[in-house]
Amino acid sequence: MSARGTDGQALQFPAGFLWGAATSAHQIEGGNVNNDWWDWEHDPGSGCVESSGDACDSFHRWNEDVGLVADLGLGAYRFSLEWCRIEPAEGEFSTAALDHYRRMCAACHERGISPVLTFHHFTTPRWLTARGGWEAPDAPERFARYVERAVAHLGDLIGWACTINEPNVVAVLGYTVGIYPPGMKDEYGRHFAVNEAMVRAHRLAVDALRSGPGSFPVGITLSMEELVAGEGGEQTRDAAEQILENTFLDATAGDDFIGVQCYERTVLGPTGPIEPVAGTRLTQMGYEYWPQVVEYTVRRAAAYTGIPVVVTENGLATENDAERIEFITTALQSLHRCISDGIDVRGYFVWSLLDNFEWHLGYGPKLGICAVDPVTFERHPKPSAHWFGDVAKANALTLPSD
Length: 402
Description:
By secondary structure, this protein is α/β, with parallel strands linked by helices.
C-alpha cells in the first residue's frame, strides 16, 4: 500500500499517536466573571457581538464532556485551567478550584484519556489586568508562580502540558489589530514588548512545570498560518513570519514538543493581507478554506525547531458537518504525508469538542464536533464526532472511494 494513499485505502498512523479534542475554559465553562475577557465582552465599544454568559456550562457539566471524549474513543482531552478561578486575587489561591481541575484530570485517567492541560488560554485575571496585564513588569513571574502552584496540586495527573495558548494571537489582536483586550491598535512597540514578556513567561513556566510532581511532555502552542507572498509582498511575509511565529518558535529550545494550531493561509502584499478573490471558498470565520495548511505549518515548525510536533488545534467553522469531515480528511491526508516523510508528529486534536464561545464573534461560528443546546446545555454529537472517533479507534484514515 502506498504511504501517500489512494481512494479507498487506509492511511495508518504511528503506534501511540495521540487523537484528541480540544476546548478552553472561558469558551465552555461559563461564568468566568473575574478575567479580562468578561470585562471586554461586556464593553459596548469592544466590538464583541455577545458575552460568553453561561457558555456550555462546562464548569458544572465537565464530566459529560470527559464522557463524550471517552465514548467517541479518543485518547486525549485538551482543556485549560482558568487562572482567575485558581488565583482570584493576587497571591490568593483557591484549593477548591484546584480540586475541581484535579477531579477532571482524575476522571480522564479513569476513562483511559490523557489530560492535556493548557495553563493560559487567552484570559488573564482582573487583578493582573489592573496592573497592566502582560505589560506589567512582573507578569511573567506572576504567571510562573501560578503555574508552580497549579502543578504542585495536579502534576502527578498531567498527561501533557501546554504553557500558553497562541501567545502571538494575544499580542497581535490585543495590540495591533485591537479586537482582543486591551484593544490597542497599531501599538507595535507594545506588541513587541508583550511578545517578549510571553516568551519569558513560557520559559519560566517550563521550569516550574519540570520542578513539580509528575513527568510529562511540556511545550507551547502557536497559531501558525501558511503565509504566502503575493506580488511585492516578500518583505511583508518575512516580517510577519518573524513577528508572529519565529519569535515564539525561537523560544522552544529545550521543550518536548511544539503545538501547532492552524486554520488558514493568508496572502500578503506590500501593505498587508490581500483579500481572497471573489468566489473563493470561505469558512464561517471568513478564512479561505485551506485544509492543507496542516502540512505546511507542521513541516515549517518541525524544520525550524527540530522538536516533535503535535497538532493541538485544527478544524473548520461551518454549519455543514459533511464539509467538516471533508476538511479534516484532507487535513489528515496532508499530515500523513509529513509523517511518511519522517517528521516526528505525535498527535492531532480537533478544535473543538463543543460548539462554543468564539471570542469576539460570539456563538455564531460552529467549530464543534458536538452541538450544545443553548438552553438545556444538552450535548449532541454530530456525524463528524462519530467519524473522527472511528478514525481514532482505527488509528487510520480510510480515504473515501469515488
